[in-house]
Each structure stands twice: as C-alpha cells, then as structure tokens.
Amino acid sequence: MGNHRAGKRERSRGSRPSPVVPTTTLGYTGGGKRRATKPVHAGSRKGLVPGLASVPTAVGAAALLLAAGGAVTLSQNGSAPVDFSQASVRAASSDISAALANRQQAVSRDSRRQALADAADAELQDAADAQLVERDARVQKLALSAQSWADELAKNLWASPLPPGTYRLTARFGQFGLWASSHTGLDFAAPHGTPILAIAAGVVTETGMDGAYGNKTVVTLEDGTEIWYAHQSSYGVSVGDTVVPGQQIGTVGNTGRSTGPHLHLEVRPGAGDPVDPYSALLVHGVTP
C-alpha cells in the first residue's frame, strides 16, 4: 500500500529523473542490507573550461615550444593571432638591433659633425690670428715708414728765423735806398740779443766776419741751397755742425754796415745768386 502511494506521487511529479550522485561504500554488513553511501568529492579543482589547461601549464608549454623552435598562436576576441614563433622573436630582435645601430650611427654622425665644426672653428681662429699678426706687422711697418717720412719732412720743413712776436720787417728783397745796389735779402728788426733760429735743416759751412754783412753764419741745405744769417752779435754753432729747423744758431746784433740791430736773411739756391726770402719762406709754409 505504501509503495503504491509512493509510486503515484512519483508519477504525479513528472518523469524528470533524479540526479545521480556518486556514492562510495562506507561498509558492508552482509545479509542483503542496504549499503550506506555518501557523495564523492573530487580530489583536485578542475579548470574553468573543460579541456583547457590551467594558466601556469599553458605558459610553461609555450616556453617549451619557443625553446624548441615551435610556434604558439594566441587569439583574443577573434583578433588576428599573435605569433610568438622563434622566427618572429628573431625578427623583433633584428629590428631592435637595427634601431640601435641606426641610433649609434646618428650619434656617430653628430659626433663627427661636431668634431668637424670644432676643427673648422679652430682653423678659422688660427687664420684670424695669422691675419692679425700680419696686419700688426704691416701697421708697424707703416708706422715706421710714416715716422721716417715725418722725420724727413721735419728736416725739410722751414721755420721762422726769429721767435714769433719779437720782430718786424723793415726792408724787403730788391729795394733800393741805403744800399749801393738793390737789397739782396729780408731784414728782421729785433732787440739786440734776440735768438736767431735756423730756418731749415742743414750743415754749418761758414761762420765769421764778412765786411758789410758783419758776423755771418752760412748753413748749407741738402739740396745745396745756402742760407745766410748776417749782422749777428754772437755765434751759437761752429762749422761742421748739423742744425735742424728752429735750432738757435746765434743772436741778433748790429755788426757790419747796419743802422740798428736786425737780422739780414738771404736765400741762395745752389750757392748762386740770392732770391726773395719772403717768397721762399711762403713756399715752405712759413709766413714771415
């Protein structure tokens, strides 16, 4: 009766089978008694996806395949597979090596370029220094030449025969009157003892008393022109002395045929006949 009701209840719940639970025998008493059973638990946890190895196992396998020269292809979300083959590793290594080589070449080019620039700068500096030395030498040479020329000009420059402001002109060249013939020089009236100055560079060729000229000094210039200084009261140079413009050669006096203390100046080119001293002084930059 009880089994019959149980069978009806089973049929009313449907034909859905009961889940099968693995059992294990705990003991057997014999005599046809029912065995005691309990669920069996797995000894180790299986992977999340049946048939797929765990992550550590997959990584180890991939490493072994790479070491053996094999190929492992992974795919994510249907994207293109990533190749980890030994060839691809070699290709990537080759690309890195090429990039490093290119970088080294660029650094080397930059270093060579800098070295060339430094060498060019040094060469330009050396050239500039050489040009400066050459220029300084030329300037020094020009300075010496200019000084020599200035000295030569200084020797040829003429000066006033008396200090400025100490004299006045009283008789000109070519005048007639107190002289037996026309006047042969230019007279500078000045106080007795006023310094007489050489008007040009030359050599003293004569000093002494000369009749109507009184005490006279003659200076011969380089071109042979003679300058006569007459009526002196004293001499300041001797025959053979070299004089320069402005150098004192005597003092104003009243010796010879003279009406008062003055300097009688004559200019005789080539030791010949006299010319107008006033014009000669003007030509040489001196205004009496």
UniProtKB/TrEMBL annotation:
Domain M23ase beta-sheet core: 182-277
Upper classification of the organism: Bacteria, Bacillati, Actinomycetota, Actinomycetes, Propionibacteriales
Organism annotation: Nocardioides massiliensis
Pfam families, per the entry: Peptidase_M23 (PF01551)
UniProt xrefs under InterPro entries: Cell_wall_metabolism_enzyme, Dup_hybrid_motif, M23ase_b-sheet_dom
Skewed-composition ranges (Basic residues): 1-11
Protein's name in the database: Murein DD-endopeptidase MepM/ murein hydrolase activator NlpD
Region (Disordered): 1-44
Origin superkingdom: Bacteria
Gene Ontology terms for molecular function: hydrolase activity
UniProt keyword terms in alphabetical order: Hydrolase
